[in-house]
Amino acid sequence: MKTRITELLGIEYPIIQGGMAWVAEHKLAAAVSNAGGFGLIGGASASADIIREEIRKAKELTDKPFGVNVMLMSPHADEVAKVVVEEGIKAVTTGAGSPEKYMEMWKEAGVKVIPVVASVALAKRMEKYGADAVVAEGCESGGHIGSQTTMTLVPQVVDAVSIPVIAAGGVADGRGMAAAMMLGAEAVQVGTRFVASTEAVVHDNYKEKIVKAKDIDSEVTGMSNGHPIRVLRNKMTREYLKMEKEGASFEELEYLTLGSLRKAVVEGDVMNGSLMAGQIAGMIHDIKSCKEIVEEMNAQAEKLMKL
Ligand SMILES: Cc1cc2nc3c(=O)[nH]c(=O)nc-3n(C[C@H](O)[C@H](O)[C@H](O)COP(=O)(O)O)c2cc1C
Predict the structure, then answer these.
(1) For the segment 229-253, what is each residue's pLDDT rounded down to a tens digit?
(2) Is residue 272 part of a domain?
(3) How far is CA 39 from the centre of its chain?
(4) Which residue's CA is minimally distant from atom 16 of ligand 1?
(5) How many domains does the structure of the chain reveal?
(6) Does any domain span residue 230?
(7) 223 C-alpha vs ligand 1 centroid, how far in Å?
(8) 296 lies in which domain range?
(9) Using one digit for the tens of pLDDT, what is the confidence trace for 114-131?
(10) Which residue, among 61, 62, 15, has the nearest Cα to 38 in the 3D structure?
(11) Are residues 296 and 150 in the same domain?
(12) Are 272 and 293 part of one and the same domain?
């Protein structure tokens, strides 16, 4: 399946692995790129030195292109933005803000810029600033979310911009991928499915929770304070939602979730950790290698699309 995204990124299959905080480190990114997709290292709030190290480790594992997700609200965003240039990174996805101030530097260095957007207005703004593509992310996704569903957001963004659109949120097999392509997307970005992959350096307890999740097992915390996050229901979400209902302050809620993604990913604390995962977790019943995920997804999509 050749699209403007496979061209832009120099990849075999139009499948991008989400740059997930804590989860998307060098092993996962390299495995997805080696499988013919596009792997991303999740920058999150990590320092520039850590990101540089992650990039170099990924380079040891793959000679295929991969990218970095730059979290623009990170206190280290300025340095990380420079590191991706110095390390010759093929593309960045950006979240939590506008990448405008880095655009000139990245463009000059030939780094492709792909902001993650949750609305038509933001997609148009990013195109105006010179983005090469956008990820239109629906609220089915795991992690930080907007308010539109993938089904409604993707075609509206496709109609509004002329740069290629990557659909994210709720894609975990070839059916979802084919559906996204039918909506006009030219690639998909996949998060939750890759958390439950062999290569993801994620505690087994967390992977197991995804494998066992049912369709209705995710919750959205943080609606009241404007920071909605989709996670699997557990002790932490029950407490969080109760406190939200009782009108707890942002600070109190922040305190409850301090370091909670790390707790889930590294310590396997499935009671108090933040088990970020999308609604599609209910459809994931096994842990597979990235190669199996990418190849099966693409083959099923091609079959359905009669390519
Ligand atoms: C554990 C986890 C952490 C995530 N962290 C980030 C992040 O740091 N930056 C980002 O842009 N997206 C992040 N996301 C969103 C993914 O990159 C991707 O867009 C999303 O998971 C796609 O939806 P899906 O989970 O239904 O596949 C995260 C998702 C998960 C599941």
Answers:
(1) 999 999 999 999 999 999 999 889 9
(2) yes
(3) 10
(4) 18
(5) 2
(6) yes
(7) 17
(8) 4-201+286-304
(9) 999 999 999 999 999 999
(10) 15
(11) yes
(12) no
